[in-house]
Amino acid sequence: TLITQKLSKLNGSEGLKEKIAAAKKCSEEFSTKLKDNHAQLGIQGVTDENAKKAILKANAAGKDKGVEELEKLSGSLESLSKAAK
C-alpha cells in the first residue's frame, strides 16, 4: 500500500523503527480486510450500512468490514507521528 511504501523510506532510532513496523502491520491488516470484503464493498450497489462498517468509526451498526483495523491504523500513525517529533 502507499502507506507501507512511504513508511519503508523512513529511518530512525530503534523506537521509531518499532512504531514504523507497527504502522506497516496495521496498514496491511486494513488493506487485507477491505480486500476480503470486496464482494460487499466493491459493488456498485454497496449498501450504506456496509460502507459505514468499513470506514465510519462512530458506526453503531458494526465494525466488521474494516473500521476496527482503520482505528488501529489511525492510532499507530498518531503514535508514529508523536515519536517522530
TrEMBL record:
InterPro entries: Lipoprotein_OspC, OspC-like_sf. This is Outer surface protein C. Pfam families: Lipoprotein_6. It is found in: Cell outer membrane. It is a lipid-anchor. The gene is ospC. Keywords: Cell outer membrane, Lipoprotein, Membrane, Palmitate, Signal. It comes from Borreliella burgdorferi. Its main location: membrane. Transmembrane segments: none annotated. The keyword Lipoprotein applies.
